[in-house]
Amino acid sequence: MIPASAYAAFDPNSPLKYWDFERRDLRPDDVEIDILFCGVCHSDLHAAKGEWGDVNRPFVPGHEIVGKVKAVGSSVTKYKVGDSVGVGCLVDSCLSCHECEDGLEQYCNHWVGTYMGMETGTGKPTYGGYSSKIVVKEHFVLKIPEGMDLAGAAPLLCAGITTYSPLRHWKVGPGQRVGVVGLGGLGHMGVKLAKAMGATVVVFTTSASKVEDAKRLGADEVVISKDEAAMAAEAGKFDFILNTVAVSHNLDPFLNALKRDGTLTLVGVPSEAHPSPGVQGLIFKRRSLAGSLIGGIAETQEMLDFCGQHGLTADIELIPMQGINTAYERMLKSDVKYRFVIDVSTLAKG
Ligand code: NAP
Ligand code: ZN
User: Which domains occur in the chain, in start order?
Assistant: First the structure.
């Protein structure tokens, strides 16, 4: 076994703290990665606090991982020692079902999460990227484009692909008016990506203090979503709206903002269900309410390459590992500009 260390949640309510553990020995198709940076996703917080149900503890969050290849198994061909690589939300799947064959491993019935998963073969819990090392099957390792800032690249592995995949699936592009709800980690990447795809982008935010930032990030317009009159003025104007909000809220104003045949896609996963949307809002304009889960491996590589070509990375606040508990408190107050990224070199006992 390979010794590793991490910051872990020992119970739902206490601060995360240092933990020594082990990664598996390399299998022929495994890549051993020394982790340099790990983004802090709201999913980490939901999971660590038990908001999505019980997790194995100590629980190690983190699925926006960037590091350097330390060693490779005997059959690995795509990576060599020293390469800059990434790992996102999934570390395994069956690789033989229709979903996997279509490059949609995240919809495989047997996909294994980077955390909250069970390791294939051993049945042991998977542990995420708030840690010194990770061992991952080659298929689930991503190549970071040459010259990309490694800390700013980390959030692309979840926030980037979770927004890129629905924008691509619903064919967002020039001539379309696209809304992004919530300017947090996912939302700010959604704005950058939708803009790079050529759409007119409108941010819906609850935070008046984020208006200027939203414009700097690429938004053409900003609407304060708590302002009922401002929301009513947007009725029937949007082709597509991506909703990244992490708490339960009324979806009707966003459904009503869609044109005929428009789609509201949810990616936020609040612990409490949203109130049911009004049926009239859906049927009178043949609108759709949809959801989307991260993205497959090939599409994640496509997104990284797209970001490389367009010079896109996340706007980050780099924090030491010991700062993670304060970062969670700030995330709950929507006070993130716009993704915390842990400098894993600061990981130390105590
Ligand atoms: P985040 O950085 O905390 O951003 C969420 C944003 O939602 C906040 O910045 C805030 O933006 C807005 N918000 C917060 N409270 C609100 C309220 N009461 N009413 C309306 N808006 C509110 O979170 P994130 O990391 O982007 O994650 C967002 C959600 O996506 C989480 O639930 C996460 O678990 C989920 N997620 C899903 C997938 C997937 O595959 N579907 C993948 C990753 C994450 P404003 O200040 O602009 O209002
Ligand atoms: Zn995430």
Answer: 2-158+314-346 (3.90.180.10), 160-291 (3.40.50.720)
